[in-house]
């Protein structure tokens, strides 16, 4: 017992040293622990407390929003292409510090190195997208029914954007919001997950460097470290013009009515319950590779993780046998180690929820065909490592229709495509979906209005791993928000419709005659 404790403490000390060194190279200071209280941050690699940080009070959040609002009053009038240059510089700094920031993501969120580097790359990519936007944001001109009149729309900066993010994308979600919000002329106050404040402080330090180098106030972007109470203060603040919140469906249900009641805007990115349909014509080698990455990657802790597999009954035994072989070879362990494909769950509470869901599935008639057990990792007895699980289900029961944020893939069967699509859509969430098929009719049906009801619909790739060029988000209880690419920028701006009369007459619209 004593040996285990000292070994695990050695791991925690190593992680704390690595995090402190990475923060130092990035130019972000590790705040001093408060004399009492504060926010204790654990690493999922050891499952032990790693650092304690000062926690923002409601008054601190209020003050941060006040400063962000003050900064907005000047930032909004900086030309968009000049704002874009700051975002370009952020992209350069992220590129320079990619390994350090990814290292922090691994230490705090438990992502394997390759996925953590991918998350930082996504930040760099969205900076590129936003720089392009900074020279192309534009409104339309419409024909006026009145002679000598011009009818057009302009897009103006919105104000302070509040960002609340989840632990599983501790930095990318902020960048999707912030890179776009900044070129749109908004300022940002970010309340990161209480589990991942260090990578947040590091990311914001890079942006603040880019801002101050260019002579702009650092308050254009602020981080408030705290838990739910700090989030609630941000949500309630009337000066937060747009509240962009990423997290569980429960959180979205709490946040949305508060923002709506004060007349604010919200953008919600909430839980998913993503499925793939596997048709008889599918290329099974490709399908199995896509399914394993989407279902077991990130230890099942992506909003887009594949949680349900709806397979044609004629091929289900073959598909499950192939998946079981792949799952049996999945290396689970320290996410920093080369070759590891599955890191830890965020905490033991998640492992407990996984166990409870598996028990419920079995009680519903399901059979666990592989995985589901805890994995002991040397020197980390407090961590929550698990073998990803596959469960064959006789039908889609309640547990299948809920999001359990852990690597469980439920397999059901279908006979007709209509039946598969009905089962696919029969869940509260609507984030991501895919079909594996080589039949064009099946693919197009799945993509059609009568097909998947999700915000993301793929053919012959898994449900996870979206690119930033498209708008990202989902329907139904996933919240309806869209972030990053396409025209998602419109949510970060306000539209003004302008009519200009350059004639000598004053004709009224709709032919109205007023004296
Ligand atoms: P969570 O809901 O527990 O917490 C998310 C964030 O919300 C945290 O910063 C938390 O402090 C804050 N929060 C919680 N309750 C709040 C309240 N009442 N008011 C204000 N803030 C509040 O989620 P989590 O466990 O960190 O993340 C996992 C969840 O996030 C999963 O459901 C996952 O699907 C979802 N997620 C969705 C997306 C997406 O884009 N759709 C992306 C990533 C994660």
Sum up the structure in keywords.
Aldehyde Dehydrogenase, Chain A, domain 1, 515 residues, binds nicotinamide-adenine-dinucleotide, Ald_DH_N, five-stranded parallel sheet, Ald_DH/histidinol_DH, alpha/beta, aldehyde dehydrogenase (NAD+) activity, disordered N terminus, EC 1.2.1.3, NAD, 15 helices, 2 domains, Aldehyde Dehydrogenase, Chain A, domain 2, seven-stranded mixed sheet, single chain
What does this protein structure show overall?
The protein has about 525 residues and is of the alpha/beta class. It has two domains: about 230 residues, Aldehyde Dehydrogenase, Chain A, domain 1; about 200 residues, Aldehyde Dehydrogenase, Chain A, domain 2, CATH 3.40.309.10. The protein is built from 15 helices and 23 strands. The strands form seven sheets. A seven-stranded mixed sheet has the order 12-15-16-11-10-18-19, with helices on both faces. Strand 3 and strand 4 form a beta hairpin. Bound molecules: nicotinamide-adenine-dinucleotide. The site of nicotinamide-adenine-dinucleotide (NAD) has 30 residues, from helix 8 and helix 9. Nicotinamide-adenine-dinucleotide binds next to helix 8 and helix 9.
């Amino acid at each position: 017992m004593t040996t285990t404790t000292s070994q695990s403490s050695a791991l925690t000390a190593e992680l704390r040293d690595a995090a402190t060194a990475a923060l130092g190279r990035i130019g972000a200071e590790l705040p001093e622990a408060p004399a009492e209280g504060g926010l204790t941050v654990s690493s999922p690699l050891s499952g032990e407390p790693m650092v304690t940080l000062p926690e923002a009070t409601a008054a601190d959040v209020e003050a941060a929003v006040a400063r962000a609002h003050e900064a907005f009053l000047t930032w909004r009038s900086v030309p968009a292409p000049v704002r874009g240059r700051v975002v370009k510089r952020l992209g350069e700094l992220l590129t320079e510090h990619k390994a350090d920031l990814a290292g922090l993501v691994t230490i705090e969120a438990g992502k394997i190195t390759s996925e953590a580097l991918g998350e930082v790359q996504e930040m760099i990519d969205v900076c590129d997208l936003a720089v392009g936007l900074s020279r192309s944001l534009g409104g339309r001109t419409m024909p006026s029914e009145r002679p000598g009149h011009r009818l057009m729309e302009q897009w103006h900066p919105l104000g302070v954007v509040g960002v609340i993010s989840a632990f599983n994308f501790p930095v990318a979600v902020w960048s999707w919001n912030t890179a776009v919000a900044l070129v749109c002329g908004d300022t940002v106050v970010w309340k990161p997950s209480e589990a991942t404040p260090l990578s947040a402080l590091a990311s914001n330090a890079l942006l603040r460097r880019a801002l101050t180098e260019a002579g702009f106030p650092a308050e254009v972007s602020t981080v408030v470290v705290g838990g739910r109470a700090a989030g609630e203060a941000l949500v309630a603040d009337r000066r937060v013009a747009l509240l962009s919140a990423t997290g569980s469906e429960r959180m979205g249900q709490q946040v949305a009515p508060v923002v709506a009641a004060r007349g604010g805007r919200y953008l919600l990115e909430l839980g998913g319950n993503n499925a793939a349909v596997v048709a008889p014509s599918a290329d099974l080698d490709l399908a199995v590779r896509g399914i394993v990455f989407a279902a077991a990657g990130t230890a099942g802790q992506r909003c887009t993780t594949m949680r349900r597999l709806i397979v044609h009954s004629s091929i289900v035994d073959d598909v499950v046998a192939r998946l079981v072989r792949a799952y049996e070879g999945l290396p689970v362990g320290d996410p920093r180690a080369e070759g590891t494909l599955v890191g830890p769950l965020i905490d033991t509470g998640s492992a407990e929820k996984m166990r409870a869901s598996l028990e419920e599935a079995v009680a519903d008639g399901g059979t666990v065909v592989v995985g589901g057990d805890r994995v002991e990792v040397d020197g980390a007895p407090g961590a929550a490592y698990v073998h990803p699980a596959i469960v064959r289900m006789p039908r889609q029961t309640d547990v299948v229709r809920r999001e359990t944020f852990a690597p469980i893939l439920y397999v059901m069967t279908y006979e007709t495509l209509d039946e598969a699509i009905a089962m696919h859509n029969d869940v509260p969430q609507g984030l991501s979906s895919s079909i594996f098929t080589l039949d064009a009719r099946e693919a197009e049906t799945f993509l059609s209005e009568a097909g998947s009801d999700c915000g993301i619909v793929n053919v012959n790739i898994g449900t996870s791993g979206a690119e930033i060029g498209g708008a990202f988000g989902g329907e139904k209880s996933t919240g309806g928000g869209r972030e990053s690419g396409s025209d998602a920028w419109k949510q970060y701006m306000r539209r003004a419709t302008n009519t200009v009369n350059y004639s000598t007459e004053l004709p009224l619209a709709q032919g109205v005659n007023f004296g």
